[in-house]
Design brief:
single chain; about 600 residues; alpha+beta; Elongation Factor Tu (Ef-tu), domain 3; 6-stranded mixed beta sheet
């Protein structure tokens, strides 16, 4: 190992949402003189406005800090910030790929919580050094000893001697954290003279500079005048600029094995570079790419349509968002009711909400979001192969269906003994099947097999609620299983609205049909005549309510003729109703109950 690498530490901070991750990052930057008092502001690494609004980190950020220890040695601390919400586990795993160790942060007022354990497992699976830290020890509600006991239960290697107690807000004992990073986290390994291998762990699009990637140099050396090759798509590019975040973009001429930095490519095609790609030199490429990341599979799909803006503007915004959000997938689609738009794939409902807000904040786009759904596998008559349905409007007519299957996940939940009954009641209310129940120390690990659609709709938030934040959740795909699913079509004024179509389990269909038409009658813009709203399943109306007219008809001449009524009933008339977002939100709320 070179002397230079001995003074590099690449690390991340992992924690449950709102346990002080961004605050600790701020203190580390201040105490290493990375930022001046004039530059200091709360949540400095959270540069997206939606991150500050929700108090969560969505995009991981990298920043280089310089720490001078008591011996006068200067260390390079590359801090990679990570998200805390369950929908952004993929961001955590990407960040961890570029690190050699993590700080596991736990709030002393709340103890070990859901994402504490989930992120701990991710770090453990990645074989990273874990430094346990108890935060907020100076608050009145802090239960430091109880929190330390919970950490000891989590891992036998955690002892009162190696658990660091701090207050990130005041800076109390944060200097101990800086010393522990030096002493406990290993320096990176990698031959500076070998062929270049660099891992792309994040990227973003700049309208002037093109694609800017963040990369960890695994081996070799990269110079600012080199031409690089992105191995996934075999795309060559010169380097317009490269450097490090300190925390602002600071150009440098060279990055060596162990370094983490950014590369401005100048590539203007948002599809050209993939997160998890390997960068090598175009003139001397390595034989094989780094393992990279698994493709992220969306859990829910929803339509995104422009409202009050052009389709081409939405297309540009979505392309740029997808570049620095590896889990967001999309393809164009057209709706009779809403026109041209996109079908987006998301990790969960919160992920969908963040994408919607980012489109508004970053691109000024107000988008209309349709009812989210998961992917279904349907076997139809006279077809050898089953079809995969991501859009409810493509769900075959009931007369053609032989078998419907939906994806199931294995949901592993860890919790204290006393919360078992409430959690089991919640899981079984979401069509969960108990697979396994085992004891781990003072905790229980319960495994349920559940449909993705039931987990995606706010299941995690409900789990936090019934367990007071103590239960953990981790999910892995299991298999497709047969389900009795039906398509619910919503017809307004006898014209079916394709954007309001959704798929549910037959047992929920009647209740949801009745509730949804009852809500929609108050949300749909009124017209001069009364308009029926119907929920239709398998050709039969299971619920109906009327949208009242703007005013009562004063003369017989204003009544709808029998011919017009017949045309509407036959579906000849296309609906010209403009649907507000409140209509789609109402259906979304229905499915999360």
């Amino acid at each position: 190992m070179s002397t230079r690498q001995e003074f590099i530490r690449n690390f991340a901070i992992i924690a449950h949402i709102d346990h002080g991750k961004s605050t600790l990052a701020d203190r580390i930057m201040e105490m290493t003189n990375t930022i001046s008092e004039r530059e200091a502001e709360d949540q400095l690494l959270d540069d997206l406005s939606v991150e500050k609004a929700h108090g969560v980190t969505v995009k991981s950020r990298t920043v280089r800090n310089y720490f001078i220890d008591e011996r006068g040695d200067e260390y390079q601390y590359n801090l990679i910030d990570t998200p805390g919400h369950v929908d952004f586990n993929y961001e955590v795993s990407r960040s961890l790929s570029a690190t050699d160790g993590v700080l596991l942060l736990v709030d002393a007022t709340k103890g070990v919580q859901a994402q504490t354990v989930a992120n701990y497992r991710l770090a453990k699976e990645a074989n990273l050094v874990i430094i346990p830290i108890v935060n907020k020890i100076d608050t009145a509600a802090a239960e430091v000893d109880a929190t330390i006991a919970q950490l000891e239960d989590l891992d036998d290697a955690f002892t009162p001697d190696n658990i660091i107690k701090i207050s990130a807000k005041s800076g109390l004992h944060v200097d101990t954290v800086l010393t522990a990073i030096r002493d406990r986290i290993p320096a990176p390994k990698g031959d500076e003279h070998a062929d270049l291998q660099a891992l792309v762990f994040d990227s973003k699009f700049d309208p002037y500079k093109g694609i800017i990637v963040q990369a960890r140099i695994v081996q070799g050396t990269l110079n600012s005048n080199d031409q690089v090759l992105f191995m996934a798509n075999q795309i060559k590019s010169g380097i317009k600029e490269m450097g490090v975040f300190a925390p602002l973009m600071t150009p440098i001429k060279q990055l060596k094995a162990g370094d983490v930095g950014f590369i401005v490519t100048g590539i203007k095609d948002p599809e050209a570079v993939k997160v998890g790609d390997t960068i090598t030199l175009a003139k001397q490429p390595v034989a094989s790419a780094l393992p990279g990341y698994q493709d992220v599979e969306p859990m829910v799909y929803a339509g995104l349509y422009p409202r009050g803006s052009e389709f081409k503007d939405l297309k540009i915004g979505i392309e740029k968002l997808a570049l620095n959000d590896a889990a967001f997938q999309y393809e164009p689609e057209q709706s009779e009711a809403l026109g041209m738009g996109f079908r987006g794939g998301f990790l969960g409902i919160f992920h969908l909400q963040i994408i919607r807000e980012r489109l508004k904040e970053e691109f000024g786009l107000d988008v209309l979001t349709t009812m989210p759904n998961s992917t279904y596998r349907v076997t139809v008559k006279n077809e050898d192969e089953p079809i995969y349905v991501e859009n409810p409007t493509q769900f075959p007519d009931y007369g053609q269906i032989m078998l419907v299957e939906e994806p199931y996940m294995l949901a592993k939940m860890t919790m204290p003994n006393e919360m078992l009954n409430d959690v089991m009641r919640l899981a079984e209310g979401r069509r969960g099947e108990l697979v396994d129940l085992e004891t781990i120390g003072a905790m229980l690990l319960v495994t349920y097999r559940m449909p993705i659609s039931e987990i995606a709709y706010d299941f995690f938030n409900e789990l936090k609620s019934v367990s007071h934040g103590f239960a953990t959740l981790s999910t892995t795909f299991d298999q497709y299983q047969p389900s009795d699913l039906v398509r619910i079509d919503i017809a307004i004024d006898y014209a079916k609205i394709d954007a309001l179509t959704f798929v549910v389990h037959r047992l929920k269909a009647n209740r949801m049909g009745i509730e949804i038409v009852d809500k929609l009658k108050n949300l749909i813009p009124r017209k001069l005549q009364a308009m029926p709203v119907q929920a239709i399943v398998e050709g039969r109306a299971i619920a109906r309510a009327d949208v009242p007219p703007l005013r009562k008809a004063q003369a017989s001449g204003t009544k709808v003729s029998k011919k017009q009524q017949q045309m509407r009933r036959q579906g000849v008339k296309k609906s010209d109703i403009e649907l507000p977002q409140a209509v789609f939100d109402a259906i979304l709320e229905m499915n999360s109950n």
